Amino acid sequence: MSWPARTAPRPRKLQEGGSGTRLLGVNHLPPQLAELVRHAYGDATGRIFLIAAACAVVSLVAVVFIKEVPLRKTVAKVDVAEDL
Known about the structure:
Largest sheet: none
Number of strands: 0
Order of helices and strands: HH
Strand content: under 5%
Distance between the termini: 65 Å
Shape: elongated
Number of helices: 2
Helix content: 40-55%
């Protein structure tokens, strides 16, 4: 079989089935369990955002207190032979 006749396998569409078609079918659960799952996701999402906000504040405070150290004072090229 020549090269142009070969084709790469086509990617599978989400609608064709498989385990990756939906994240969680909450609507297919019993009403009491669906409410519990929605509540758990809501609580977890809120907690994740609070933790991320706290990390952002700690990072900002750390950046404010880092001493600035200049890497160079000029853009002139320095010969290595002069330094020896």
